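REQUEST FORM: STRUCTURE PREDICTION
Request ID: SP-0412
Submitted by: Lab K.M.
Chain count: 1
Length (residues): 552
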Amino acid sequence: MLNKAWRIIPRPLLETVLNNHVQHHRVPQPLILHGPRGVGKTTLIVDRLLDGWNKGPNLTGYVDFAQNIEDHHPHHNNSFPWSSWSNCPQPSLAELSSQLDACLESMAETAIRLGTIGSQQIFSTLNKWHGLNTALRRILQSISNGSIQAISRRGSTSTLWEKAVFALSARSNVNETTKIEEASYFKEAIAALRLAKEVIRVQQQWRANAVAHLNRTGGYSRSLANSATDWPCLLLELLSQAAEMDHFQPKLIINNIDVLRNASVTDESTICSSMYHDSLIWRMIALGANERCLPIILVTSDSYYSYQAYMDFGFPDIFISRETFGWTAQEAKMHLVTDYFTHSEWAVAAEVVGPNPRHLFELYALKQSNYYQKVMDDKDSTFEDIIDSYLAYLQVTVVNPAIDKALSLLQKFAVDAQSGKISKDRLRFGAPWRHPPRTDNPTLCLEWAKLQLIDFVQSLVNTEFGVNYLADCSLEILDDPSAVALLEVGLLYSQRDPSFIRPISRGVERCLVRWLVQERMQMDFWDSLKYFWQRIIRGRSYRHLMLQVGYK
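STATUS: Completed
RESULT:
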């Protein structure tokens, strides 16, 4: 049993739902596949579905934005983090946008080879959204080495386009042009695609100073945000128009879309990552609603996309939602007992860490290690000792660092509240977090942050880690900075249906309780006094949100 390889277990219902979505060549809405970490979303897509979605007329572009985080990705022989991607070093927006562009350009070239995208289609789609004359004259001038006489001032847009396509095609060397079959149609379409990219690049350069001013002032401009996503959205529109049943059926899978939302920006002439993220998704939604779009699946473990994103982008059904929580305890037992765990081992594992597939895989890998054999050689050792070692590993490497990040977020909240950056409504009368320190002293802010977090975790324990944030329609718990911090670092997950906020797994839940007990035990007299004052006078109580209101 110890030498048996871990196998990928099918999930027929979820696989059928996703296959039914992507079998259409065009759809009206993007689909979001979301759920807590470790439930097997990436494994399902990559190991079970992706190969089938590239057979026959199907072509699937797969973009994993987390692949650029080398220290935490299997592509670089590392494992995914248990906590949020926001706790890892963030890749640059330029890297992520280039990754998306390269995937879509490769798909567009495949469509050109199949004859479904041509030069005239590229021109008409680009001309629908962009004024082209000035940019085309600028490009023609650069190709002709500044010879203004070579450019007719009276030429129509289509004439300028044809001249620019011909000039680019002639300038291309033999190696570039022979990548496509030697038909002039294909050469012209490839040159037109390059020209469209160059037109958009020129127009983005014109807006560089405006974007830099926008970044300095912290404002928002939809036109400037859309200018940054013009190229990928043009490719999406071209691919959607080219889609044809049983001939060319493109699809796009974007994994870890939340990494794009938090990417770093080093160039002030580039819009911020959250604005790029919002513009990209807005235009996907608009393309699907107005003209139908190729099937797009966004995969994420960030609970922002389970509810809040739907409200930020318009209404609760603006995306198709597919939420997965992995196996139930009965399903996991059926698949794993006797093959990977004995009945007695399964009883302990299910009670302590639950049926989370990643927890169970890591436990099984621990069983196969030399450490397991060394522990089990001791006559007094049992499988419970392996579980304790695994929980200690989670505590030290996952939960404690994430809690430190949550404490820093709470300290920032205290400083922002002291400087007036937090709205009065959020600091309303009766809020347990209403009285942060009146100074930005780091020591006092850290003490206040830790007291708030201990109080919040204690309130979660009192509710048995099941808080229904929509129970009274007030969303009051989402105003709590401690709840927001733990959601942001990825220790809590706000699921969509039913609408509970809970730890991402039972193993992480036990580690949170361990942290609470340890902090309580380390309190001196004055710290204990402050804690009891907080609990009795200002303490949180979310027991009224335990009821599962509105669900049958």
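NOTES: The first strand starts at residue 31 and ends at 34.
Reviewed by: T.R.
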